[in-house]
Design brief:
This protein is of the alpha/beta class and 377 residues long. 27% of the residues lie in helices and 29% in strands. The longest helix is centred in the N-terminal third of the chain and has 21 residues.
Length: 377
């Protein structure tokens, strides 16, 4: 084993969207950054791959709504820095249980974010590819992110400002030293003044293998294999991002959806089986695929239900669906983002940089500790 020369300001473990965003924001501040990612560029083993993720600002409360709004100018700044487009604003619509819409409308109104409430018939004329069951909440400052291009752009922007991005480097341990930390890989010991663990489904194993003077108290992190599906559109209509909340016309699981280069993507939230990220089979569950086909048949007249193509990805979530973004000693952890975290990535990267720099304390919903109550979203 060789010892890496020098000492970085920050070593980041994990090169998905969150780790890459943290590398970009830290390098922008002039910090020396080494990012270690165990897989190759563009891999499909984690939670950051694919052609699409929803960007929206409509949440039940002001906390996440404000965080999503903060992310928007940062996504645009990333596009300028990387010289590529990652975010397309198509607008977003929520429909279903009226109470779910009302909470989101209140949060948008409180923050001065434009929105409108539409009757189903009017919404159906505007977006004929979707069948709506109740009043519809539409907000225009929403749309879709290209997931693969977003991660590539973050890595490129971080590299342009001096970050050292290393792929194919698995972390085997982290230990506290007199000057910070040492991150142990198969071939090197990478010294840093601070370490950021943003390893997605591998966060718990990385922390459990670490020998630290101050140990982060993580909540339970649950990793499941989810299976969104894509359908071929049958019209040339513009598709908004959409969320169909159960409780009105929809008796089954809630559904999210959006347009993408691979077709119209829909999925259930957090219904897949619990898996080990090292041994999962990557095979979609036929029953889950059948549910998505049934949904498309009933609610999406703008797609061909027989054209279904299913995929799998990892979800790693906390019990209350809040993220973990907190610091103890020379260690910051960013975890639990699956299901709704991708849209926030540059804002989370900025928060991580603030924590590393000692400028802020973690927001209360993101702090270490055990959170067992499920939060309404």
């Amino acid at each position: 084993m060789s010892r890496d020369q020098g000492c970085a300001d920050v070593v980041i473990v994990g090169g998905g969207v969150i780790g890459s965003a943290a590398a970009w924001r830290l390098a922008e501040r002039g910090r020396s950054v080494v990012l270690l990612e165990q897989f190759g560029p563009g891999h499909r083993r984690g939670a950051s791959h694919g052609s699409s993720r929803i960007y929206r600002q409509a949440y039940d409360g002001e906390f996440y709504t404000a965080l999503a709004a903060r992310a928007l100018p940062l996504w645009r700044a990333l596009e300028d820095a990387a010289g590529t487009s990652v975010l397309t604003l198509t607008g977003a619509v929520d429909h279903g249980l009226p109470g779910a819409l009302a909470a989101k409308a209140r949060a948008l109104a409180a923050l001065g974010i434009p929105y409108e409430l539409l009757e189903p018939e009017r919404a159906g004329r505007r977006w004929p590819g979707i069948r709506f069951d109740t009043q519809v909440l539409h907000h225009p400052d929403a749309g879709r992110l290209h997931a693969d291009r977003s991660v590539q752009a973050l890595s490129r922007a971080a590299g342009k400002t001096g970050a050292d991005i290393r792929h194919g480097v698995a972390v085997r341990g982290i230990r506290t030293t007199a000057t910070g930390v040492e991150v142990i890989t198969d071939d090197d010991v990478v010294a840093g003044r601070h370490v950021v663990v943003a390893a997605g489904a591998w966060t718990r194993p990385v922390i459990d293998a670490a020998r630290l003077d101050a140990v982060p108290e993580l909540p339970r992190l649950r990793t499941t294999q989810e299976q969104p599906a894509h359908f071929a559109p049958v019209t040339d209509d513009d598709w908004p991002s959409f969320v169909h909340h159960p409780g009105a016309g929809l008796a089954a699981e809630g559904i999210y959806g959006l347009g993408s280069g691979d077709g119209i993507k829909i999925g259930e939230h957090g219904t897949g089986p619990v898996v080990d990220p090292e041994t999962r089979d990557h095979r979609p569950d036929p029953a889950g695929v059948a549910r998505l086909v049934d949904y498309a048949t009933a609610w999406l007249p703008g797609v061909d239900p027989g054209s279904v193509t299913a995929d799998t990805c990892l979800y790693t979530t906390t019990p209350d669906s809040n993220f973990v973004v907190d610091r103890i000693g020379d260690v910051t952890v960013a975890a639990g983002f699956s299901g709704h975290g991708f849209k926030f990535a540059p804002a989370i990267g900025e928060l991580v940089a603030d924590l590393v720099d000692g400028k802020v304390r973690a927001p209360e919903p993101f702090r270490f500790g055990t959170r067992e109550a499920v939060a309404a979203r």
